[in-house]
Design a protein that fits this description.
The complex is a heterotrimer of chains A (329), B (366) and C (512). Chain A has 14 helices and no strands. Chain A has 329 residues and is mostly helical. The termini of chain A are far apart. Chain B has a domain of 228 residues. In chain B, strands 1-2 form a two-stranded antiparallel sheet. Chain B is built from 13 helices and two strands. Chain B is 70% helix and 3% strand. Chain C folds into two domains: 231 residues, P-loop containing nucleotide triphosphate hydrolases (Rossmann fold, 3-Layer(aba) Sandwich); 162 residues, P-loop containing nucleotide triphosphate hydrolases (Rossmann fold). In chain C, 33% of the residues lie in helices and 25% in strands. Chain C has 17 helices and 20 strands. In chain C, the strands form four sheets. Chain C has a six-stranded mixed sheet, with helices on both faces. In chain C, α13 packs across α14. The chains are: A mainly alpha (329), B mainly alpha (366), C alpha/beta (512).
C-alpha cells in the first residue's frame, strides 16, 4: 500500500527549498523583475552557509555553540544571496540591462561559485579533512522537538522538521500577507504592474525594486542553506542541488504569484518530485524518470490555461521583464 | 514648509546616436576592466601572478593543435545554438528553451543511431537523423510558439519549462537504452560499426561540424538581413501593430520563426550526438542553450558578430578549464570568470544606450 | 491663503527633448479659486509644461514658485507634497486593482491599510463634489469616464488643492463633460486652483475664468475669459489671424469609389465605436472627417483598411465601370491582392505606419517588400523611392540609412505620406496628417493631398483642426459619438455649424 505517513514528510522536506525559492522569486517578480538568477542565488546561499559553517567548525574545534553554529552560516548565507540580489538590481534597475540575460549570467556565476567553493574550499583553506561534512552544524539546523517522536504519525507528519522548514512556511505566509494586505504590498504590486503609474503616484520605483529583489534573493538563498544543512545533513556535493531553482520558478507560475498557495503547491511539487520512489514500477526504473517530469508538465498546463482564460488576476505582473525609464517617450 | 531640495546632480537620457568608435571603445573598455577584475579574483584565490594566469589561459585555449580543435568545435556548437535562437530574439520572442530543443534533436539522432543503426546504411541513416532531429527541435520550439500566438502565453516561462520536460524525456530513454543494463548510461553508440557517425573530413574529427556552422552563420546572416522572412521578423519584433498594418500575419510569423529556431537547435543536437559525442546524456547540451542567449544578445543579434562573442565565451571557458587543472582548482572556476566578464559587458551596455549629463545649475537657486 | 500670491508661479521654464524645444522661457501664474484654461494647439507644449509641475519631467532651466517660495519638483511625490494633482490624458491607473487601491496608491498614511475606511472616505469625497465611484470595482471593468473620475478622486483624496486636467473632455460624451464641469465649479467654489488643458474654445468659454495661451512652446499671454472672444483666442493660439490659404482645386470627375453602408463596429471592450455609418467617398475629391477625438474616426479608417473587425454593414470598393468588391472580412494583404490600391496614413506614425528603428530605405519597403518572386528582398527600388521622397518632399535627414525615429515629426510624416502615395493609390486614407507639424510642413502635406485628389484619388482626410477641414475638403462628414451627424459641403459650411454637429447629433439643438 501507499505509505502516506512516510511519504508526506519526505514530500515536505523536498518542498522546503522550492518554497523558499518560490517565495523569494514571487516577491521579486511582483516588483517586475524576472530574476532568472534565482537558481544561482540558491547555490550561493547554500555555499555561503557552508563556508561560514566550515570556518566556524574549524575554529571551534569540535565544541560548537548551537546558537553560533546556526547564526554564523545563516548570516553568511543571507549576506551572500543579498549581494547577488544587489548585483542583479544594479545591472537591471540602475543600468537597465536586459533581465533575461542578466539572470542567466547570474545563474552561470552562482552555480559556478557554489561548485567552485564546494570543490576547492578544503584546498583553499589548507584544511586536513577529506570532505566537507558539517554534521555538527547540520545537527543544530535539523534539531527537532524532543517529544516529536513520541506522538506517532502526528509527530512524524507535522513535527519532524528542522526550524528552517517552519521558517519557510512562516515567510510564505508573511509574504502573502504583506502583498495582499499592507500598503507596502500594494505599492510593490503597483510597481510590478505599471511602474509609470506607481511613479506618478510618488512611489520610489528604484527603492521598491531593489528592496523586493534583495529580500527575495535572501529568502531564496535560505532554500539553498536548508538544502545543504538540513536535507543533505551538512554534506555539500557539487551539482547535488540540481535544478530545484528552476522548479521554484515553475512553482511561482503554478501558484499564479501567490506565496500562501505556494505552501501546499510546494508540497505537491515535492511529492511529485519523489513520487517515483513510492510508485510500484517493479524493475522498470525508466518510468520513474517520466514521473519527475510531472511538476514541469503541470506548470506548463497551468501557464497555458491561465493565458487561455485571460483572467486578469492570474496573469504575470504586467511589466515583468521590462526595465523602467521615466523619460521613455 | 517643506525644505527646498537641491537639483539632481546629473541627468540620464537616451543617446540619440552612437558612433561605431564610441560603441567599440565602451565594449573594449568593459572587457579590459573585466579581465582586470578576473585577474584580481584569480590572484586572490590562487596567489599566482595574474600575467601567468592569463598565460595559462592562453595555453589552455591555443596551446596545442588538439586544443585549438577543441576550441573550434566548442565554438561551432555554441555558435550553432546562438544562431538558432537569434531569429526568435529578433522577433522579441524570448526563447530560453534552446537547451531543451537541442536535447530533443540529440535524442532523435541517438534514437535513429540505436534503433536503425544496423538496419540502414549511413548514406540513408544520416540524412534521416538530420531531418528527424530538426523536426524534434522544431516541435519543441513550436509548441510554446503556438500557445504564444493563440493565447499570448508567456514564452520565457514556457520554453524554460520545456527544457526540463526534455531533460526527463532523455533521462527516460537513457535508462531504456542503457548499456549494459543497470549502468544508467548509454555509452558510445555503435562504437564498432560507427553507424550514424558523421564522416571525418581530411582526417579531422571536428572539421565537418565547424564547416557546417560556418556555412550556417553566412546563411543566417543573409536570411535575417536580406530575405523577405527576415524582414518580416524584424518588423514583428519592432512593432506588431506596424506588422498588422502592412498585412503581415503576426501569428504565422511567430510560429514559423520558432519552428526554424527549434529546428536549428535540433541541428545542434544532431551535430553534438552524431558529430562529436556519439552518445546522449541529460547534460549533453551543457548549458549552451542559456549561454547562447548571452552570445546572441551581446552580438546585438548579428550573426557575424556572434562569431566574436561565441569565441570570447568559449575562449574563457577553455582558458579557465586550464587554470583549474593547472592550479588544482575546481573546473567551475571558469563559470565564475565567465560570470564576471558577462556582468561587465552587460553593465557596459548602459553606457552605449544612455548618456549621463551633469547639470550646469546644480546646487542653489535664487 | 492670500489670494494675490499665486498658488504656482512658473518662471522662465525651458525644456527640450533632443533638438525639439518643447518649452521656451515660459512664465505663468496659477491662482486659487480660479479655473485657468491652458490653451494651445497640439504640440504647443501645454502638456510638457504641466508635466513639469507634476514631477514627470524636470525642467532644463528656470524656476517654479509655490505660494511664493522656490520649489523643486523632482519627482511626482514632490508634486503631491505641494498639493499638485494632475489628471493625465492617459490614465495612470493600475488595471488589475480596485478603485480604492488605486486611490491610496503611494500614500503614506499612518496605521494599517484599511480599505474599508478608504472606501468610506472616498464616498465622502464623492458626496461633496457629486461623483459616483464604487471603491471595490476593478479598473479594467470601468468605462473611460469612470476611470477619469477615479483619477480625480485620487487627486482630491491626497488633498490636492491645485488640480491639473490634461484634455479631460477628449474622451467624454457631452453629458459626461457637463458633469465634469459641474464638479470643477464645485472645486473652484471650495477654493481650489484648477488648470484645464484644452484646445477647444467653447470649453474655455464655458468653464474658465482666465485663459493662458501657448504657441510653439512659448507663452503668448493670458487674459480674463470674459474679456476675450473666440477670435482673439484663436489669434493668440496660432500666432496670427487664421488665414491658412490652403488651395482647394475643384473636384475632378467625381465618381463613387468607396461606399460604406450601415457600418457598425464594436471595440475590444464591447463598446460600440461606430453605429450605422453610411457615406460615399468619391474619386477626385477630399472627404473630410470631423469629430471630437475618439468618436470613431480611428475605427472607421481601420475598418476600410482591413484592420478592424466589423460587426455589421458593408464597405464596397467601386471601380470606374461600376463593378464593385466587398472589403469587409479581408485583411490588408487580401485587399491589395484584389487589386485595390489603398493607402493609409495612420495617426500613430512611428508605432504603426513606420518602424522607428529602421532606416528610410527599409521603411519604404514595408509596403512593397513582398514584390518579386524570390525569397529575397530587393532593396534597390525602395532605396530609389527613398531618394525620390527625400528630394521631392524636401526631407531633412542625415542619410538614407538614418533610423526614422531620429527624424523630426514633420520629416517622419513626409516619409510616411511619401511612401503611401508612391504606390499610386486610388484611395488615400489619412488620419491627423499634419498633427505636430509646423506651418511649412503642413502645407507640403496639403499640396501632396491636393495633387492626389487632382489625379483622381478618393481622399479621406480625418482632421482635428476645423479651419483646415473647411479650407481643404470638398465635403465634410461629421461624426458624433460614432454616428454620422451630417455631411456638409466644405465650401459653404461654417465652423459653427461643424462644431455644433460634432457635439450634438445632427447639430439640431442650438448650443449657444
Amino acid at each position: 500500500m501507499f505509505d502516506l505517513v512516510s511519504f508526506i514528510p519526505r514530500a515536505v522536506v523536498q518542498s522546503i527549498p522550492l518554497l523558499y525559492g518560490a517565495t523569494g522569486e514571487t516577491l521579486t517578480e511582483k516588483s517586475g523583475n524576472l530574476n532568472l538568477g534565482i537558481p544561482g542565488i540558491m547555490y550561493v546561499g547554500g555555499i555561503c552557509g557552508v563556508i561560514g559553517a566550515f570556518l566556524y567548525e574549524q575554529s571551534a574545534g569540535g565544541q560548537l555553540d548551537p546558537l553560533l553554529a546556526v547564526a554564523i552560516p545563516m548570516t553568511a548565507s543571507l549576506a551572500g544571496s543579498a549581494l547577488m540580489g544587489l548585483l542583479y538590481c544594479f545591472l537591471t534597475v540602475t543600468l537597465r540591462a536586459n533581465q533575461n540575460v542578466t539572470g542567466l549570467a547570474m545563474t552561470t556565476f552562482g552555480v559556478g561559485f557554489g561548485n567552485f567553493f564546494g570543490g576547492s574550499l578544503i584546498k583553499l583553506t589548507g584544511s586536513e579533512v577529506p570532505s566537507i561534512a558539517l554534521s555538527a552544524t547540520s545537527a543544530c539546523f535539523s534539531a527537532k522537538l524532543p517529544f516529536a517522536d513520541s506522538l506517532g504519525w502526528f509527530g512524524k507528519i507535522f513535527l519532524s522538521y528542522g526550524f528552517l522548514a517552519y521558517l519557510a512556511i512562516f515567510l510564505a505566509l508573511v509574504t502573502a500577507y504583506v502583498l495582499r494586505h499592507t500598503r507596502t504590498g500594494l505599492h510593490l504590486r503597483a510597481v510590478g504592474e505599471n511602474p509609470a503609474t506607481a511613479d506618478a503616484a510618488g512611489i520610489n520605483i528604484t527603492r521598491y525594486k531593489y528592496t523586493a529583489t534583495v529580500i527575495g534573493s535572501m529568502i531564496a538563498g535560505l532554500g539553498g542553506l536548508y538544502y545543504v544543512m538540513d536535507y543533505a545533513s551538512g554534506v555539500w556535493s557539487n551539482d547535488a542541488f540540481g535544478d530545484r531553482g528552476w522548479l521554484a520558478i515553475a512553482l511561482v507560475i503554478f501558484t499564479s504569484w501567490r506565496p500562501n498557495v505556494g505552501i501546499p503547491a510546494a508540497i505537491l511539487f515535492g511529492g511529485l518530485y519523489i513520487l517515483y520512489l513510492f510508485v510500484p514500477t517493479g524493475m522498470n526504473l525508466s518510468v520513474k524518470e517520466l514521473y519527475k517530469m510531472l511538476p514541469y508538465l503541470v506548470t506548463i498546463v497551468v501557464l497555458v490555461i491561465t493565458s487561455m482564460r485571460d483572467k486578469r488576476e492570474n496573469q504575470p505582473p504586467a511589466s515583468l521583464g521590462q526595465a523602467y525609464f521615466r523619460e521613455d517617450r | 514648509m517643506t525644505k527646498p531640495r537641491t537639483n539632481p546632480l546629473f541627468h540620464i537620457s537616451k543617446r540619440k546616436e552612437i558612433t561605431l568608435r564610441e560603441s567599440a571603445s565602451i565594449r573594449a573598455g568593459a572587457i579590459l576592466l573585466a579581465l582586470a577584475a578576473c585577474a584580481l579574483v584569480t590572484t586572490a584565490l590562487t596567489g599566482e601572478n595574474p600575467i601567468a594566469v592569463y598565460g595559462t589561459m592562453w595555453h589552455g585555449a591555443f596551446g596545442t593543435t588538439r586544443k585549438i580543435w577543441i576550441l573550434l568545435q566548442n565554438m561551432a556548437l555554441l555558435l550553432c545554438v546562438s544562431l538558432a535562437v537569434t531569429p526568435a530574439f529578433k522577433m522579441r520572442f524570448w526563447n530560453i528553451g534552446a537547451e531543451g530543443q537541442t536535447l530533443m534533436g540529440g535524442l532523435a539522432t541517438a534514437a535513429c543511431m540505436i534503433l536503425l543503426g544496423d538496419k540502414l546504411p549511413n548514406p540513408v541513416l544520416i540524412p534521416l537523423m538530420f531531418v528527424l532531429s530538426c523536426a524534434a527541435g522544431a516541435v519543441w520550439g513550436g509548441i510554446p510558439a503556438v500557445c504564444k500566438a493563440k493565447w499570448g502565453t508567456n514564452e520565457t516561462l514556457f520554453t524554460l519549462m520545456m527544457n526540463y520536460v526534455a531533460t526527463q524525456l532523455v533521462a527516460y530513454f537513457v535508462i531504456v537504452w542503457e548499456v549494459p543494463k543497470g549502468a544508467g548510461k548509454i555509452g558510445i553508440i555503435n562504437q564498432s560499426t560507427e553507424a550514424g557517425w558523421l564522416p571525418q573530413l581530411a582526417g579531422q574529427k571536428y572539421l565537418l561540424n565547424v564547416l557546417i556552422v560556418a556555412v550556417l552563420t553566412g546563411l543566417m546572416y543573409i536570411y535575417l538581413s536580406r530575405s523577405k522572412q527576415g524582414y518580416e521578423i524584424a518588423v514583428v519584433g519592432e512593432s506588431e501593430r506596424t506588422a498588422r498594418y502592412v498585412g503581415i500575419k503576426v501569428e504565422k510569423v511567430i510560429v514559423r520563426t520558432m519552428l526554424l529556431s527549434g529546428a536549428l537547435c535540433g541541428l545542434a543536437g544532431f551535430l553534438l550526438v552524431a558529430g562529436t559525442d556519439h552518445t546522449i546524456t541529460t547534460t549533453i547540451a551543457g548549458g549552451r542553450g542559456f549561454t547562447a542567449v548571452m552570445v546572441s544578445w551581446l552580438a546585438g543579434f548579428n550573426p557575424l558578430n556572434m562569431v566574436l562573442t561565441s569565441f570570447l565565451l568559449v575562449l574563457l571557458d577553455r582558458g579557465a578549464a586550464e587554470i583549474s587543472t593547472d592550479f588544482g582548482l575546481n573546473h567551475a572556476f571558469g563559470d565564475i570568470l565567465t560570470g564576471i566578464i558577462l556582468f561587465f559587458i552587460i553593465g557596459s551596455e548602459f553606457f552605449a544606450r544612455y548618456e549621463i549629463r551633469f547639470r550646469k545649475s546644480a546646487g542653489k537657486e535664487g | 491663503m492670500d489670494n494675490n500670491i499665486p498658488a504656482i508661479s512658473v518662471r522662465n521654464i525651458t525644456k527640450s527633448f533632443g533638438s525639439v524645444l518643447a518649452n521656451d522661457q515660459i512664465n505663468l501664474d496659477i491662482y486659487r479659486g480660479e479655473i485657468l484654461a491652458l490653451l494651445g494647439e497640439n504640440g504647443s507644449g501645454k502638456t510638457t509644461l504641466m508635466n513639469m509641475l507634476s514631477g514627470i519631467y524636470f525642467p532644463d532651466d528656470g524656476q517654479i514658485l509655490i505660494d511664493g517660495e522656490p520649489a523643486v519638483i523632482a519627482a511626482p511625490k514632490d508634486a503631491y507634497r505641494f498639493g499638485i494633482g494632475m489628471i493625465h490624458q492617459h490614465f495612470k491607473l493600475v488595471e488589475v486593482m480596485t478603485a480604492a487601491e488605486n486611490i491610496v496608491l503611494g500614500l503614506k498614511e499612518p496605521g494599517r491599510l484599511n480599505l474599508e475606511a478608504v472606501g468610506r472616505k472616498i464616498q465622502d469625497i464623492c458626496r461633496e463634489y457629486g461623483f459616483e465611484v464604487d471603491p471595490n470595482q476593478k479598473v479594467y471593468d470601468m468605462s473611460v469616464s469612470q476611470k477619469q473620475t477615479v483619477e480625480i478622486v485620487k487627486a482630491l483624496y491626497r488633498g490636492a488643492d491645485i488640480l491639473i486636467l490634461d484634455e479631460p473632455t477628449a474622451v467624454l460624451t457631452p453629458q459626461e463633460a457637463e458633469k465634469l464641469f459641474a464638479v470643477l465649479r464645485n472645486m473652484r467654489a471650495a477654493g481650489k486652483a484648477v488648470v484645464i488643458i484644452t484646445h477647444k474654445l467653447h470649453e474655455v468659454e464655458e468653464i474658465s475664468d482666465r485663459v493662458a495661451v501657448l504657441n510653439h512652446g512659448r507663452f503668448v499671454g493670458d487674459v480674463a475669459t470674459r474679456r476675450t472672444n473666440a477670435q482673439e483666442m484663436t489669434n493668440m493660439m496660432v500666432g496670427h489671424a487664421v488665414s491658412l490659404n490652403i488651395q482647394r482645386p475643384d473636384p475632378v470627375d467625381p465618381k463613387p469609389r468607396i461606399q460604406v453602408q450601415g457600418l457598425t463596429v464594436r471595440g475590444a471592450d464591447g463598446v460600440v465605436k461606430l453605429e450605422d455609418v453610411t457615406f460615399t467617398a468619391n474619386s477626385g475629391e477630399i472627404l473630410g472627417i470631423a469629430g471630437i477625438s475618439g468618436c470613431g474616426q480611428k475605427e472607421l479608417l481601420e475598418a476600410i483598411a482591413g484592420l478592424q473587425k466589423v460587426d455589421k454593414g458593408s464597405i464596397r470598393y467601386v471601380e470606374d465601370n461600376g463593378s464593385f468588391c466587398e472589403l469587409i472580412g479581408k485583411d490588408p494583404m487580401e485587399i491589395s491582392a484584389m487589386g485595390v490600391a489603398l493607402s493609409f496614413v495612420p495617426e500613430d506614425r512611428l508605432g504603426m505606419g513606420l518602424v522607428g528603428n529602421m532606416d528610410l530605405t527599409d521603411n519604404m519597403m514595408l509596403r512593397s517588400f513582398r514584390r518579386g518572386r524570390g525569397a529575397f528582398t530587393d532593396r534597390r527600388a525602395p532605396r530609389k523611392l527613398a531618394e525620390d521622397v527625400v528630394r521631392e518632399l524636401d526631407v531633412n535627414t542625415p542619410s538614407l540609412s538614418t533610423p526614422v525615429r531620429r527624424l523630426s515629426g514633420g520629416n517622419v510624416q513626409k516619409v510616411l505620406v511619401g511612401r503611401e502615395i508612391a504606390s499610386a493609390p486610388t484611395v488615400l486614407l489619412t488620419a491627423y496628417a499634419v498633427r505636430g507639424l509646423d506651418i511649412h510642413s503642413s502645407h507640403t502635406i496639403y499640396n501632396l493631398i491636393n495633387k492626389q485628389k487632382q489625379s483622381g484619388v478618393a481622399v479621406v482626410y480625418v482632421g482635428e483642426d476645423l479651419d483646415v477641414l473647411l479650407e481643404l475638403c470638398d465635403r465634410i462628414l461629421v461624426l458624433c459619438g460614432g454616428r454620422v451627424s451630417g455631411i456638409l459641403d466644405g465650401r459653404t459650411a461654417t465652423k459653427n455649424q461643424v462644431g455644433l454637429m460634432m457635439t450634438t447629433l445632427g447639430g439640431a439643438e442650438d448650443h449657444d
